[in-house]
TrEMBL record:
Keyword S-adenosyl-L-methionine part of the UniProt annotation: no
Gene3D superfamilies documented for this protein: 1.20.140.150
Source organism: Ciconia maguari
Domain of life, per lineage: Eukaryota
An annotated Gene Ontology molecular function: structural molecule activity
Membrane topology field: Multi-pass membrane protein
CC annotations in GO: bicellular tight junction; plasma membrane
Protein name in the entry: CLD19 protein
Keyword Transmembrane helix found: yes
Family, as annotated: Belongs to the claudin family.
Organism lineage: Eukaryota, Metazoa, Chordata, Craniata, Vertebrata
Localization, UniProt: Cell junction, Tight junction; Cell membrane
Transmembrane segments: 12-31, 47-71, 91-114
Record keywords: Cell junction, Cell membrane, Membrane, Tight junction, Transmembrane, Transmembrane helix
Amino acid sequence: SLAVHIQTSRALMVISLLLGFFGIIVSVVGMKCTKVGEEDPVTKSRIAVAGGVLFVLSGLCTLAAVSLYATQVTYEFFRESTVPINARYEFGSALCVGWGAASLTVLGGSLLCCSCPAKERRGQQYYRQSQPSTAREYV
């Protein structure tokens, strides 16, 4: 049986993956460039914000899992034991990649959350105004 901190980290990473997957789907539906779902720009931006929230939660779950494991590694390293210091676990590149991924996921989710329309624009409809075409004749 695995240790409790490893099982907890594993569960948090699975939750993070699921939240990230659903965040991708919701964000794609909420993008202005896609024609999936509602045509109302305000509704689409709210859907994009929901995707951003899912990304932020996914990043926080990843951050919690990686930090929990790093805390356990630190505790085991400084604990008095019979294992020599050169045989103990240390921080590896996987922990740094995990922290970087969590930071980028939270940053990306935060940027998606900033796509919420301003309060004064919420009730308005946006229509693309077509430019009058001018016919030019070259002689």
